[in-house]
Design a protein that fits this description.
17 helices, 4-stranded mixed sheet, Potassium Channel Kv1.1, Chain A, mainly alpha, CREB-binding Protein, Chain A, binds zinc ion, BTB and TAZ domain protein 2, 401 residues
């Protein structure tokens, strides 16, 4: 039934030959005149009159007594030719669009006023009228006719009802109804609801693709289909980019940890590697970053004994060399620093007057900021726990420089 309403709107859009914005305020008057011209035809057709109970106006339980209402002076006619008596003063006071229709001069003074509300089921029209009279809508009606009520509240400019529909439809989105709601949200300029639908479609596209709603959309609005597919594509590439950034950040964090371990090994020693002038075995239990520290110790031991060295093309030595250079670039106390080659690297850079190249500088900056970010984003105790947990996860072998 919702799709009938959407189809109805599509038809109107084609009639108005104004793409994409037929429901904008400007076009509502077109819509209104369309309904007016229809009303003349309606008058000649046989219609089913309905005897309204007091409750049609939704006044039971409120202070207003339906008996206070004047005689109905207008009829709302639905697409099934159901005639619902109503009061022009009330309709006009709630909806400026209905007011407009009511105020238009009639062709025949004697003919009775008829306002067709078509494209939605009878009961949706009744629920709409009930809201106009009482500003209320039951949960049950919202559940059944939320989509229609959204369309009606938009076309007839009833903002309170529109807000309520947007909110409730947003809470009732399912795989089955999401494409219908999405189309209507777009037609009714309900941007938040539209975005909510888009996200649901993007996250469950495999399932949504098989729904009737999606097939209907493909047949009736290929432009919107394209918009949705583009949104899904952009979401996916955004996710990919975020993941890549996160991985990079992890790498910089590992490097920053390696820098800490390097200083700690060269200053106080750790398990099997330490400064030459320090007693082995003294204070050398595994430290809190042992997985990184141990990898680094193995690398240092290799570096000290390797026969091929950096110039012989040894990749492990080259990696160690780069870690030492990285340390030197970050070190702010080269005179008292105990890390091998720290001062030599600094001197060499000064002598050659050669500034570090841009990529290297960027790397240094990222490693420094990774450390700052991680120490800011975690409270101290949490950070200590975190470090304990990652102990066994990544060794120095995961570094690629
Ligand atoms: Zn250590
Ligand atoms: Zn080597
Ligand atoms: Zn240093």
């Amino acid at each position: 039934m919702a799709r009938e309403t959407i189809k109805h709107f599509h038809r109107l859009r084609n009639t108005n030959s104004q793409k994409d914005s037929f429901l904008s305020t400007h076009n509502i008057s077109v819509f209104a005149s369309l309904t007016l011209s229809l009303s003349l035809e309606m008058e000649t057709n046989a219609t089913v009159a309905i005897n309204i109970s007091d409750d049609l106006y939704g006044l039971s339980g409120t202070k207003s007594d339906p008996r206070d209402l004047p005689e109905p002076d207008v009829h709302i006619v639905t697409c099934d030719a159901l005639r619902i008596p109503a009061h022009s003063s009330i309709l006009a006071s709630v909806s400026p669009v209905l007011e407009n229709i009511i105020d238009r001069p009639r062709k025949h003074r004697s003919s009775e006023r008829v306002i067709p509300i078509t494209g939605v089921p009878n009961d949706a029209v009744l629920a709409f009228l009930r809201f106009l009279y009482s500003s209320r809508c039951t949960e049950e009606h919202m559940e059944k006719y939320g989509i229609h009520l959204l369309a009606l509240s938009h076309v007839y400019l009833v903002p309170q009802l529109k807000h309520r529909c947007i909110k409730e439809l947003g809470q009732r989105l399912t795989i089955e109804n999401v494409v219908d709601v999405l189309q209507l949200a777009k037609m009714c300029d309900a941007a938040d609801l539209y975005l909510k639908c888009l996200k649901l479609v993007a996250n469950h596209f495999k399932a949504v693709e098989n729904t009737e709603g999606w097939k209907f959309l493909q047949d009736h609005d290929p432009w919107l289909e394209l918009d949705i597919l583009q949104f899904i594509d952009e979401t996916a590439s955004r996710k990919k980019k975020t993941r890549k950034l996160r991985e990079e950040q992890r790498l910089y964090l590992q490097l920053s940890e390696a820098m800490e371990c390097l200083e700690h090994i060269c200053k106080e020693g750790c398990t099997s590697v330490g400064p030459y002038d320090m007693e082995p075995g003294h204070n050398r239990g595994p430290c809190s970053k042992f997985s990184t520290c141990q990898g680094l110790q193995l690398l240092i031991q290799h570096f000290a004994t390797c026969k091929r060295r950096v110039n012989g093309g040894c990749l492990r030595c080259k990696r160690m060399w780069q870690l030492l250079r990285l340390h030197s670039s970050m070190c702010d106390q080269p005179d008292s620093c105990r890390v091998p080659l720290c001062r030599q690297f600094k001197l060499k850079m000064q002598q050659e007057k050669k500034k570090d190249d841009a990529r290297w500088k960027l790397l240094v900056r990222k490693v420094v900021s990774a450390k700052t970010i991680s120490s800011l984003s975690l409270p101290k105790r949490k950070r200590e726990e975190e470090l304990g947990e990652t102990r066994s996860s990544h060794g120095i072998r995961t570094f690629r420089l």
